[in-house]
Every structure is written in C-alpha cells, then in structure tokens.
Design a protein that fits this description.
alpha/beta; TIM Barrel; 7 strands; 11% strand; Amidohydrolase-related domain-containing protein; Amidohydro-rel; hydrolase activity; Aro_Compnd_Degr_Hydrolases
C-alpha cells in the first residue's frame, strides 16, 4: 500500500496526478479492516525519489509492524541505505507503468543489474512495475540478478488482441507469460496479486492467469491491497480478495499467499524459519 499526503509532503514536480490525502492513520484503519497485522509501504511514482512521507510513516509504525519499498537514484550512499534498513526498508521499486516511459529493453536490463548490485549486500527485494511483454525480453537478465525480483499487479499481463474472455483462453498466448512461468519455476521471480482493475484482461482471463501462476509456484505469490487505489479511489476490492482466496483454497495455499510468503519476502521471517527467497 501507499502513503500519500500532498498537504504535508509535496509531490514531485511534474507528478502525473494529484490524489486526495491518504495518510498513515487512514492506512492503519484500512488495513485493520482486513485483519492485517503488518504493512508494507511502497513508494508511489508521484513522490519520485523523495521518500520522506514513507520514511516518517515507517518510523511511526516501527520495524516490527511495517516494512517499506523505496525509490532512489543509483548514486545513493551506503550509509543512507543502512540507516533505512534499520528502519525497516527491504526493497527498491522501479516503476515504468505509472510514468508512461518509453522502454528500451537493453537499457532497462542494465538498470536492473545496477540496482541489483546496490541492494544485494542488504538482501533487499528489487520490485518492478513493468509490462509482461518486457519480462519476456528481460528473462535472462532477471534470471541472473541474484536478488529477489518481484513484479507488481500480476506482472501486468495484456491479452490484447487475444480474447481473454473465451472459455478456452490460453494464458500462454500472452506476450511474456511463458517467460514469467519459466522464471517462477526456477525461483527467480515473485508475483504480486493486486490491482485487478489495472490489468488489461477480462475477469475470466485474469482468473486463468492467476490459477496457472499458483499451480506453478504458489510459494512465489504475495497478496497486496494496492490501497489507496490511486486513480481508482473508492473501488471495493473485497470481491476480488474473496476470489483470490477461492483460488488459493483450491490448492491449499491460503496461508502462503496471504501471510507466509510476504513475511519471507519482506524479512519478517528469516531463513532460520524456512524462508528461501532467492
């Protein structure tokens, strides 16, 4: 989820949108309604590299209650990263989808390797909001990163122009999906089940994708609320949460997807407790 408070923390120049205030107290109230005991705060694109709102919220919650995923420039110094680690930061996010950047796969592969080198000593997660077709182009790079790599929103699959509402819809026709599955099978990727409203698939298509991912590696899937659903404010995610719960119940993976996996990925649990994140 995200902390967004434009009244107290100015947005980055040129921010793509200006949402209403969704502060730390709103976040805690919202997460409590889901019965959650831990929060992962993710830096939104509209704050750019200024993590002030996120870090102050993390301090208020404390490292036993919360974790965070920041954004930073590669020139950042190790002292800053270590201080953030003590606060509970456990990852860095690269966001291409929210900013409508034109992507050169070769250049972005170099960026992934650069950030992986920076965070590897800390054991952090490299989180990316990218399109699934790009995952296909980056398969070999992702496989060799040597850090936990997690993609937002189902990996952002798009079936267009394929008809994902067809009864016999084959998710392997989605550009990048075969590569995603291979990376999951090898333990080189994690997938976040979140924000169905941001995915260009029909409900049937997304169900097909989600169930296949769970069938392959349910231990590499985490659930996320995507609160406060920026640019989709007011959406009710409970029906979708219940749907994902049903998918997980079919293969006895509820505890994994809604709890254990996230605690391993974000460092609540350790390798001593059976977590293997890379």
């Amino acid at each position: 989820m995200h902390i967004i408070d434009p009244d107290r923390y100015p947005l980055a120049p040129g921010a793509a949108y200006v949402p209403p205030v969704h502060n730390i107290w709103d976040a805690v109230a919202n997460e409590t309604t889901f019965g959650m005991k831990h929060i992962v705060i993710v830096q939104p694109s509209i704050y750019g590299y200024d993590n002030t709102a996120l870090l102050e919220s993390l301090r208020a919650l404390g490292p036993t209650r919360a974790r965070a995923v920041v954004q930073f420039q590669p020139s950042i110094n190790r002292t800053t990263l270590q201080a953030w680690h003590q606060l509970g930061v456990r990852g860095v996010r690269l966001n291409l989808q929210s900013t409508d950047q034109t992507v050169n796969a070769t250049a972005f592969a170099a960026t992934l390797r650069q950030y992986a080198d920076i965070i590897r000593p800390l054991g952090w997660v490299l989180q990316a909001y990218i399109s699934m077709d790009l995952i296909g182009a980056l398969e070999s790079t992702i496989r060799d990163l040597g850090v936990p790599f997690c993609v937002d929103h189902f990996g952002q699959p798009s079936a267009s122009p394929v008809n994902s509402s067809a009864k016999n819809f084959d998710p392997y026709t989605i550009p990048g999906f075969p590569a995603t599955i291979r990376l999951l099978q090898g333990g080189h990727m994690w997938v976040k089940f979140s924000a169905n409203y941001r995915v260009n698939l029909t409900a049937h298509g997304l169900e097909t994708v989600g169930k296949e991912i769970l069938r392959v590696r349910s231990d590499r899937v985490v659930w996320a609320t995507d609160w406060p659903h920026t640019r989709f404010e007011g959406v009710d995610i409970r029906p979708f949460e219940e749907e994902v719960l049903e998918w997980c119940e079919e293969i006895d993976a509820v505890e994994q997807v809604f709890s254990t996996n996230a605690k391993c990925l974000w460092g609540i649990y350790s390798s001593a407790q059976g977590c293997q994140i890379v």
